[in-house]
Amino acid sequence: MFKELSFIGFIFIPLIFTISRKVLRERKSFLIILSFSILVSILALCEMNYETSDSPNFILFWFCPLYSLLLYRLMLIPFWARKKRDPKIPPRELFYSGNVNHFADNFFGFVFMLLSMLLPMILIVNLR
Question: Mean per-residue pLDDT for 14-31?
Fold first, then answer.
């Protein structure tokens, strides 16, 4: 069953990013999400020990929330250093808003979504 629900681990953080970025920035909610991510990563490690090795191993998708949280925090550091604020991306305008003043914000959202969804998918499917 853990393997069948692995898609949830894959989309968990990108979905939160798309719906409400505030949850990822606030300390209390971030710690709750981080705890959940660590828990499912530990469960995935335990499951990998008992599971036969399939190719691709979709249990690895349960490591995606931890990876995405780390990626989000690491991407915020240069954004904060350069812009001195959080990215402002309206939910319906994730990649393009038409406003050139928000280019850095839209670029942040695009790169985060690309790296948090496409890179794990390519690595897990090609990992043998």
Answer: 89
